[in-house]
What does this fold into?
Amino acid sequence: MPAEDCIAIEDSENGLKSATAAGIKTIITTSEYTRQQDFNNAALVLEDLENVMIASHNEPLSVQTLINLNRRTPI
It folds into this structure.
Protein backbone atom coordinates (compact mmCIF):
# COMPACT_ATOMS: atom_id res chain seq x y z
CA MET A 1 0.00 0.00 0.00
CA PRO A 2 1.44 3.42 -0.88
CA ALA A 3 2.31 5.71 2.03
CA GLU A 4 -0.11 8.38 0.77
CA ASP A 5 -2.96 5.88 1.30
CA CYS A 6 -1.99 5.29 4.94
CA ILE A 7 -2.61 7.02 8.25
CA ALA A 8 -0.50 6.25 11.31
CA ILE A 9 -1.72 6.66 14.88
CA GLU A 10 1.20 7.22 17.23
CA ASP A 11 1.74 8.38 20.79
CA SER A 12 5.31 9.67 20.79
CA GLU A 13 7.68 11.97 18.96
CA ASN A 14 9.75 8.97 17.85
CA GLY A 15 6.67 7.30 16.38
CA LEU A 16 5.80 10.52 14.57
CA LYS A 17 9.33 10.80 13.20
CA SER A 18 9.21 7.22 11.90
CA ALA A 19 5.82 7.60 10.26
CA THR A 20 6.56 10.95 8.65
CA ALA A 21 9.94 9.67 7.41
CA ALA A 22 7.95 6.98 5.62
CA GLY A 23 5.65 9.66 4.13
CA ILE A 24 2.63 8.67 6.24
CA LYS A 25 0.18 11.24 7.67
CA THR A 26 0.13 10.82 11.43
CA ILE A 27 -2.42 11.33 14.17
CA ILE A 28 -0.93 11.68 17.65
CA THR A 29 -2.61 10.71 20.89
CA THR A 30 -0.71 12.21 23.81
CA SER A 31 -0.09 10.78 27.25
CA GLU A 32 1.28 12.18 30.48
CA TYR A 33 4.73 11.01 29.35
CA THR A 34 4.64 12.46 25.81
CA ARG A 35 2.48 15.58 26.17
CA GLN A 36 5.51 17.92 26.08
CA GLN A 37 7.12 16.34 23.01
CA ASP A 38 7.31 18.06 19.61
CA PHE A 39 4.32 17.08 17.47
CA ASN A 40 4.50 19.95 14.97
CA ASN A 41 4.64 17.59 11.98
CA ALA A 42 1.53 15.65 13.01
CA ALA A 43 -1.61 15.91 10.90
CA LEU A 44 -3.67 15.97 14.12
CA VAL A 45 -2.90 15.87 17.87
CA LEU A 46 -5.52 14.52 20.29
CA GLU A 47 -5.55 13.70 23.98
CA ASP A 48 -7.26 10.39 23.22
CA LEU A 49 -9.50 8.76 20.65
CA GLU A 50 -12.49 8.28 22.94
CA ASN A 51 -15.67 9.81 21.52
CA VAL A 52 -13.86 11.56 18.67
CA MET A 53 -16.13 12.45 15.77
CA ILE A 54 -15.14 13.60 12.32
CA ALA A 55 -17.23 16.76 12.40
CA SER A 56 -17.52 17.26 8.67
CA HIS A 57 -18.70 13.68 8.22
CA ASN A 58 -20.58 13.15 11.51
CA GLU A 59 -19.00 9.72 11.83
CA PRO A 60 -17.24 8.11 14.79
CA LEU A 61 -13.49 7.86 14.39
CA SER A 62 -12.67 4.41 13.08
CA VAL A 63 -10.09 2.89 10.80
CA GLN A 64 -12.61 2.89 7.95
CA THR A 65 -13.57 6.54 8.58
CA LEU A 66 -9.88 7.49 8.49
CA ILE A 67 -9.40 5.57 5.25
CA ASN A 68 -12.42 7.28 3.70
CA LEU A 69 -11.34 10.70 4.97
CA ASN A 70 -7.79 10.20 3.71
CA ARG A 71 -9.09 9.41 0.22
CA ARG A 72 -11.32 12.51 0.13
CA THR A 73 -9.26 15.28 1.67
CA PRO A 74 -5.97 15.86 3.45
CA ILE A 75 -6.28 15.78 7.24
About this structure: The mean pLDDT is 80. The two ends are 18 Å apart (CA to CA). The longest strand covers residues 25-29. Strands lie at 7-10, 25-29, 44-46, 53-54, 59-60.
